[in-house]
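Tokens in:
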């Protein structure tokens, strides 16, 4: 981080006067490559340290406020904890020196942070609150899986880091009919139990799963080839088909159409990858319908 008071005129013009009076540290970051920049003479000067290192992490933050600020094109706030201190971080997107970047403003709020809860009266417990809030920011609150923002960010990170992985995008077949026949509460049960099956599959491949739409999910298996992922995906497909859902005295099962793609470093960007896996999923859905 760099001292706002030592910044040049161009930077101070970017910062609202009230914000400048509150925050005491700043830095620019480009989340795509985790680079940190100081600002001097209206130009960005790169620092030889990744953005997440300041939080004493070896990997990028799961709750990266700067990536979210760029995506939403609006400011994003988060809390971080470091060496017995609580920091408030404000991330705002900008274009500086021809780069799309994020201005991060930081303030040590250890002494001034107020939480209206008698249970959270010291910094040791506040760390649990921060961890819980940061976890909620990347989770789908209904199923407990990761959310779409997390999925897009993590896939982009894997691609930029040139890491291989296998992805399976899936959609529950005829989910509208399930809702219409058995009711939306039963449909909600289907979503939650589907999430549990995906979580089990993810753990078998050291991966993770996310809910990316109403009844759409994605499973990412890092550093596994299609051949290595096949037993996990076959077991998942079998478990979905064999799983029984209950409504009163009746029971039913569901099927999920699955599009699978192994990513090889350098072959495409994240947007094209998502489009391709999505296309494969809908091709499978059409085959399932025509085969009935």
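Residues out:
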């Amino acid at each position: 981080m760099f001292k706002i008071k030592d910044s040049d005129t161009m930077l101070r013009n970017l910062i609202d006067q009230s914000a400048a009076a509150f925050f005491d540290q700043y830095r620019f970051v480009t989340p795509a490559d985790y680079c940190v920049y100081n600002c001097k003479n209206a130009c960005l000067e790169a620092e030889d340290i990744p953005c997440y290192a300041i939080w004493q992490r070896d990997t990028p933050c799961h709750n990266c406020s700067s990536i979210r600020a760029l995506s939403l094109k609006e400011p994003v706030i988060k809390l971080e904890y470091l060496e017995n201190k609580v920091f408030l971080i404000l991330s705002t997107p900008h274009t500086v020196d021809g780069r799309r970047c994020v201005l991060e403003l930081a303030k040590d709020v250890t002494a001034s942070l107020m939480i209206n809860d008698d249970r959270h009266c010291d910094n040791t417990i506040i760390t649990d609150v921060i961890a819980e809030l940061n976890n909620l920011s990347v989770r789908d609150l209904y199923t407990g899986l990761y959310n779409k923002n997390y999925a897009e960010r993590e896939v982009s990170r894997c691609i930029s880091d040139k890491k291989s992985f296998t992805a399976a995008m899936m959609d529950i077949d005829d989910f509208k009919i399930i809702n219409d026949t058995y009711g939306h509460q039963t449909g909600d049960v289907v979503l939650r139990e589907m999430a549990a099956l995906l979580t089990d599959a993810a753990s078998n491949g050291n991966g993770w799963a996310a809910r990316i739409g109403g009844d759409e999910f994605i499973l990412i298996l890092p550093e596994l080839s299609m051949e290595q992922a096949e037993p996990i995906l076959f077991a998942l497909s079998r478990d979905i088909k064999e799983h029984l859902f209950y409504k009163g005295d009746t029971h039913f099962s569901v099927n999920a159409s699955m599009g699978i793609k192994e990513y090889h470093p350098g072959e495409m960007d994240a947007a094209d990858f998502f489009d391709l896996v999505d296309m494969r999923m809908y091709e499978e859905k059409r085959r399932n319908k025509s085969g009935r």
